[in-house]
Amino acid sequence: MDKISILLKKVGVTFQNEELVKRVFIHRSYLNEHKGYKGENNERLEFLGDAVLELVVTEYLYKNYPNPEGELTNWRSAIVKGEMLAKIAK
Q1: pLDDT tens track of the chain, all 90 residues?
Q2: How many angstroms separate the CA atoms of 18 and 48, rounded?
Q3: Could you tell me the pTM of the whole model?
């Protein structure tokens, strides 16, 4: 059993496709250093995740604030920045 499978078992989470979970942890630089690795990096998943996060934040702001579009856009941009997400996570 690999480390990802052990982690998922401990957390009590199951996925239909564990390969996607493994891909989350594969950065492009890892592939540069491990030429024999046949998997993909996480960039496409990151792209998708960014879009989903932006959509969720957009919907929340739209439903909860009557402010004009430009203001909501600025708020959304500030909220989904990595620095802000790190603060929220802490």
Answers
A1: 688 888 889 999 988 988 888 899 899 898 888 888 888 899 999 999 999 999 999 999 999 999 999 999 999 999 999 999 999 899
A2: 17
A3: 0.74
